[in-house]
Amino acid sequence: MKPLNIMHGYVMVGIMKICPHCRKELAPTAVRCRYCRKPLSLEKRAPIRPTAVNLEPCYPPWSLPEVLVLWLLVCAAIAAIGYAGIPAAVTDVLRSNYFIFIKEPALQFHLYIFVGTLLLKLAAIGFIWAILTLHKTRFIAGLNLDRPIKKQWLWLLPAFCIFAVALRLISDTDPLSPNLPVYLFFNEASAIGIPIILFSLSVVAPVSEEIFFRGFIYPGINKRLGLYWAVFITSCLFAAVHLPQCKEHPAILFTIFLAGVFLTLARAITGSTLMAVILHAVYNTTLVLVGFIKFLVLRY
Q1: Predicted confidence pLDDT, tens digits, the chain (300 residues)
Q2: 182 within 8 A of 114, measured Cβ to Cβ
Q3: What is the 8-class DSSP label of residue 17?
Q4: Which of 135, 178, 210, 236 has the smallest C-beta neighbourhood within 10 Å, fewest atoms?
Q5: 94-103 long-range contacts, Cβ below 8 Å, gap at least 24?
Q6: CA dist., res. 180 & res. 248, Å (int)
Q7: Within 13 A of 89's CA, how many CA atoms are on the CB side?
């Protein structure tokens, strides 16, 4: 019986499937790897996609229920941060140490919102890291932050810069646009506060928000509902996060929604979350430059 067992083993090894991602042996009928949870044949499992553009395949190990869990955790974090009074405490520390001078109540409110959203972004990234850890997926690779940007997509950078200027012109039609945080900060912030705000808008916000929306939310929705619903829902959630700062500015909320659509489509076309981060940084830097020209150069 021993030679038969050995022969049976050789036959089984010959028909076993090998996962192309983690290189482990699987049953011949398997369609998904039991170890890394990735599909074994991308061609057979590829969803129907528009033929106008070649979209990069999107197969995250998480799905829509985990996106909903993440959103519930973020809502719970919002309630916990507000109940603990952390933003108010941090704002008082900044005021008492003269990091940022506050002259208007509107700016004080926006600074409070800024501190709260920063803490919330850190909590959201922590939740995403925990979910990816449960799936045994690396943080950078799982969110497609390590995918290089192809030269054929570099035209998106000047295109999005022009798009951001157009959205800025639409936003400025709102008579209350001078009360936006990015403008108030330039009018009221100190020499120390401006670099902090500049770094937060051009680096912290693009990285954290794109990890959350285009890195995690969009792939999870796209996997279950398809591209169009994924773009629409992700853009709506992106605009909803900015609601506390722009609830009195419907035109500006609409431009944020349009920016979310552009960023999500760029993520879908290029397959790179890094591209979405760079484009988001271009958009926010455009806001900063407009504020710098209007308030510090032209003294508008």
Answers
A1: 444 444 444 334 445 667 776 767 777 667 777 777 777 764 444 444 443 455 656 678 888 899 999 999 988 888 888 788 777 787 777 667 655 555 555 556 666 767 777 888 889 999 999 999 998 888 888 888 888 888 888 888 888 888 888 877 777 776 655 556 556 555 555 555 566 667 777 888 899 999 999 999 999 999 888 889 999 999 999 998 888 777 777 777 888 899 999 999 999 988 889 999 999 998 888 777 776 676 655 655
A2: no
A3: E
A4: 236
A5: 98/190, 98/192, 99/190, 99/192, 99/193, 99/196, 100/189, 100/190, 100/192, 100/193, 100/196, 101/188, 101/189, 101/190, 101/193, 102/188, 103/188
A6: 10
A7: 7
Contact 286, 165 (CB under 8 A): yes
pTM over 0.70: yes
Question: Are residues 136 and 34 in contact, defined by beta-carbon separation less than 8 angstroms?
Answer: no
Under DSSP, the state recorded for 32 is B
**What's the one-letter identity of residue 125?**
I
Helix and strand counts by DSSP (H, E) for the chain: 15, 2
Could you tell me the CA-to-CA distances from 36 to 40, 43, 62, 223, 230 in Å, in that order? Answer: 10, 18, 11, 17, 24
* Region of residue 223 (left: phi > 0; alpha: psi -120 to 50; beta: else): alpha
For every residue of 150-211, DSSP letters joined together read PGGGTTHHHHHHHHHHHHHHHHTTSTTGGGSHHHHHHHH--TTHHHHHHHIIIIIHHHHHHI
